[in-house]
């Protein structure tokens, strides 16, 4: 009795039409928005378009998306996609013009390097000598070393004079005759040593002049820098120029 009832219930369930569930409007909107966003991200940016335009020697106006060979010796205007001016492509230079431009560029580069070097040297100078007192102290120390060297040479000359006396006394025995080889050699060596010391003294005197000239030039420059002149604004000093000229290549 139960079995027929169960079969009837199953038949009723199976005979009931099933409804298809469709996505709601909100779900459709989200899916469409996500798809549009993904498509927007996937699209690469449009390449920037260059438009080259020029007028040839015979008056023809040419336009291209790349530099125009027929106008290589003439100025070419570079336009945006909307026709507005973006830049100007100068005419190609001849070998002579290119060589002249390279010379000008090297000259400008050398001038910039010299200016930077002048700034560096002035700053170093002010750092070494923040006041005139420190500069005077450095001058005195430099001169003192040279004075000591001169005094040492003068003492050596006096010593050589003392060493020469017995040689002269011995040479008196050979007056009017040839000196023995050993004695002559000793006297010649003494003369050479005296001459060498005298030359050293002359060199040291010249060094004193050089030191004073250097410190005089530095002091003159420092006074202007201390007064407010900008480092590098005074140009290259003669002493620096002479030092650069005397320096070996690659060490300037």
Task: State the main characteristics.
252 residues; alpha+beta; 7% strand
Indicate the radius of gyration in whole angstroms. Answer: 48 Å
Mean pLDDT: 82
By DSSP (H or I, 4+ residues per run), the number of helices equals: 6
User: Are there runs of 5+ residues with pLDDT below 50, and where?
Assistant: 25-32
Molecular shape: elongated
Give helix % range: 55-70%
Strand order of the largest sheet: 2-1-3-4
Number of strands: 4
H-E order: HHEEEEHHHH
Percentage of β-strand residues: 5-15%
> How far is the N terminus from the C terminus?
120 Å
Q: Biggest sheet, in brief?
A: 4 strands, antiparallel
Secondary structure class reads alpha+beta
Coiled coil: 143-170
Region (Disordered): 232-252
Protein name: DUF4124 domain-containing protein
Keywords: Coiled coil
How would you characterize this protein structure?
The chain contains 6 helices and 4 strands, in the order ααββββαααα. By secondary structure, it is α+β, with helices and mostly antiparallel strands. It is 64% helix and 7% strand. The longest helix has 46 residues, at 181-226. The radius of gyration is 48 Å and the shape is elongated. The termini are far apart. Residues 25-32 have low confidence and may be disordered. A 4-stranded antiparallel sheet has the order 2-1-3-4, with no helix packed on it. Helix 4 runs antiparallel to helix 5 (181-226). It has helices at residues 2-15, 25-42, 95-128, 132-172, 181-226, 238-246, and strands at 51-55, 61-64, 76-79, 85-89. Among the domains are: 51-89, no CATH class; 107-235.
């Amino acid at each position: 009795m139960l079995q027929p009832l169960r079969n009837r219930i199953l038949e009723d369930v199976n005979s009931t039409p099933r409804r298809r569930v469709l996505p709601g409007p909100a779900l459709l909107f989200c899916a469409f928005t996500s798809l549009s966003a993904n498509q927007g991200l996937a699209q690469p940016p449009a390449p920037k378009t260059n438009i080259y335009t020029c007028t040839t020697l015979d008056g023809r106006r040419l336009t291209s998306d790349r530099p125009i060979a027929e106008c290589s010796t003439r100025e070419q205007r570079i336009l945006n996609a909307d026709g507005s001016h973006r830049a100007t492509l100068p005419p190609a230079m001849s070998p002579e013009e290119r060589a002249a431009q390279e010379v000008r560029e090297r000259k400008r580069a050398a001038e910039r390097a010299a200016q930077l070097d002048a700034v560096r040297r002035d700053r170093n100078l002010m750092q070494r000598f923040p006041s005139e007192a420190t500069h005077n102290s450095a001058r005195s120390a430099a001169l003192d070393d040279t004075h000591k060297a001169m005094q040492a040479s003068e003492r050596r000359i006096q010593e050589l004079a003392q060493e020469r006396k017995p040689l002269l006394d011995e040479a008196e025995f050979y007056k009017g005759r040839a000196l023995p080889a050993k004695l002559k050699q000793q006297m010649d060596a003494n003369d050479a040593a005296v001459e060498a010391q005298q030359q050293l003294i002359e060199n040291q005197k010249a060094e004193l002049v050089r030191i004073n000239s250097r410190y005089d030039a530095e002091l003159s420059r420092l006074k202007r820098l201390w007064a407010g002149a900008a480092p590098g604004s005074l140009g290259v000093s003669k002493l620096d120029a002479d030092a650069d000229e005397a320096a070996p290549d690659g060490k300037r």
